[in-house]
From TrEMBL:
SMART domains listed in its UniProt record: IGv
Chain ranges of the Ig-like domain: 25-136
Membrane disposition: Single-pass type I membrane protein
A GO CC term attached to the entry: plasma membrane
Region (Disordered): 1-24
Superkingdom field: Eukaryota
Protein family: Belongs to the myelin P0 protein family.
Protein name: MYP0 protein
Major localization class: membrane
GO BP: any one term: myelination
UniProt keyword annotations, A-Z: Disulfide bond, Glycoprotein, Immunoglobulin domain, Membrane, Signal, Transmembrane, Transmembrane helix
Length: 136
């Protein structure tokens, strides 16, 4: 069986709720985005798995909202970008083994950045991270 972990964002690799929004000195405060994912997701080789990512912000959802999914293989130090949503369009990154097996099912207007990975392989074990940015 393939297993996947997902973090809330780059600051929360263990999953659960992540928080972004840091203000350098002299800059107006940034409102955080709360990103929610499941801590662990299990799937069977050959089947599909839904990697859900929902988020909440007190600010309105900007036309420039972006959602990025990263994957860090089990035992690897490096993570790769596997999916990006920007300027109203989903983009499946043309690297790694996911490009032919990924489906975008999210809807940023509903604060949803969910993806589906089809035909799971044993090498899909690892950490999946959902990162959401809502400029400005």
């Amino acid at each position: 069986a393939a297993r996947g972990h997902r973090g809330g964002d780059g600051h929360c690799p263990q999953g659960g709720e992540g928080l972004t929004g840091v203000s350098p000195p002299g800059v107006s405060p940034v409102s955080p985005i709360h990103v929610y994912t499941q801590r662990e997701v299990y799937g069977t080789v050959g089947s599909r798995v839904t990697l859900s990512c929902s988020f909440w912000s007190s600010e309105w959802i900007s036309e420039d909202i972006s959602i990025t999914w990263h994957f860090q293989a089990e035992g690897s130090r490096d993570s790769i970008s596997i999916f990006h949503y920007a300027k109203g369009q989903p983009y499946i990154d043309d690297v790694g083994s996911f490009k032919e097996r990924m489906e975008w099912v999210g809807n940023p207007r509903r604060k949803d950045g969910t993806i589906v990975i089809h035909s799971l392989e044993p090498t899909d074990n690892g950490t999946f991270t959902c990162d959401v940015k809502n400029p400005p």
